[in-house]
Every structure is written in C-alpha cells, then in structure tokens.
Write a structure and sequence with these properties.
heterodimer, A: mainly beta, six-stranded mixed sheet, four-stranded antiparallel sheet, 12 strands, 0% helix, globular, B: mainly beta, seven-stranded mixed sheet, 11 strands
C-alpha cells in the first residue's frame, strides 16, 4: 500500500539550531515528492518539491530537502531555524507523472523557542 | 487572484443534520480535492475530481458526497452528520498536466464540529 511516514510527531528546537525532519515513502514506480508547511491558523502552502533532476532541492525560507531513492527518503533540512519557523510540516508523495492522488504523512509539529 | 476559497470557515452541526461545504478556485485548474485533517493523522483524501465531470473516491469517502458543479467549483456534502466527522476540511486544486507535477493549492479550511 502507498504510504508516507514522518519520523517525528513533535520537535522542539531553540533558535539557530539545525533542523532535519525525516520522511520515508512507500510508493511503487516514479514519484513526485513535496513538503508542505502549515503556519498556525493558516492553510497549507508548498515549501518545496521534487519531480526530477538534482536530488537536492531548495525551497522557500532557506529550507532544502534531499531525495535519496535507495532509501525511499526525502528529508527536510534547515541549517538554522527561526522562531517564525514554528509550524506543522507535512511530507507528501504522488505518482509521477500527473498522479491525482497525493498521500500525506501525519505531520511534524515544530516549535522553535526564541 | 483569490486562489482557493472555502465557505463557511466554521460550522457546528447536530448529529443527523446535513450541510454542504463550498469550494471555488480561480486558477483554471482541472483537478480539485477534498481532504480532512485530524490530529496525528495528517491529511486524508475524501474525494477528488480529476477533471470537470468526473469524481472519484479517496481514502475516506464514507458519509460524504461531492459535486463538481463546473470547472471552478467542487462541493462536499454531509447528508447525515456524525461526531466522527468533526474535523478540519480543506479543499485543494491542481493541474497535473503542469510538468506532470501534482502541486496542490489549498483553501483556508472549514472547521466543522458535530455534536
């Protein structure tokens, strides 16, 4: 069955700490991978996406993610977090190309202490 | 561009009542989706519409119906609400023909409580 697993449900960091959020997927065939972010009280918005080419993708606000096909992973990283990064982060996958169904992970709540 | 809009923002229902959640997008996207978001479970797909005139079940369709009214609008109906349907509902749209990439754009959500 298709699935997306996020390793941590809650993460608490201090400002300037480095962040890595784990994501593994189980999906037959070629996939597109996404990280979405949901800031408190707001709707989901795209942080970054992978669909082909360089496995290291860069997104908004200094986030990046690396697609490692052999490990079925797409981990999200940021070298130095800020208080404003407090949010819930969702990893997601869909079949490529043009798959309609997107499977989301359970989400990771990040709290950054000022 | 308003993007994806949803109404209402909040709703409280009694068990057995019915209601329709409305969603509209102005990005000329072909595909539209309804998700529910529950704590610790991420987003789960209820129904989707790959293109105007088609609808398909997602992971958790029981207790819901949908209508793709036209290219812009996709509504979700609860015929007889149950407490298990208490959730936050998100509508989304996308155009998978765009580089074969199903990047989704989300509405602000509807917070529904069923008593």
């Amino acid at each position: 069955a298709q699935s997306v697993s996020q390793h941590n449900h809650h993460v608490i960091l201090s400002e300037a700490a480095s962040l890595e959020l784990g994501c593994n997927y189980s999906y037959g065939g070629t996939v597109n991978l996404f990280w979405y972010v949901q800031y408190p009280g707001q709707h989901l918005q795209l942080l970054l996406k992978y669909f082909s080419g360089d496995p290291l993708v860069k997104g908004i606000k200094g986030f990046e993610a690396e697609f490692i096909k052999s490990k079925f992973s797409f981990n999200l990283r940021k070298p130095s977090v800020q208080w404003s990064d407090t949010a819930e982060y969702f990893c997601a996958a869909s079949r490529a190309p043009g798959g309609f169904k997107t499977i989301f992970g359970a989400g990771t709540r990040l709290f950054v202490k000022a | 561009n308003a993007g994806v809009t949803q109404t209402p923002k909040f709703q409280v229902l009694k068990t057995g009542q019915s209601m329709t959640l409305q969603c509209a997008q102005d990005m000329n996207h072909n595909s539209m989706y309804w998700y529910r978001q529950d704590p610790g479970m991420g987003l789960r797909l209820i129904y989707y519409s790959a293109s105007e005139g088609t609808t398909d079940k997602g992971e958790v369709p029981n207790g819901y119906n949908v209508s793709r009214l036209n290219k812009r609008e996709f509504s979700l109906r609860l015929e007889s609400a149950a407490p298990s349907q208490t959730s936050v509902y998100f509508c989304a749209s996308s155009d998978p023909r765009d580089r074969g990439l199903n990047e989704q754009f989300f509405g602000p959500g509807t917070r529904l409580t069923v008593l």
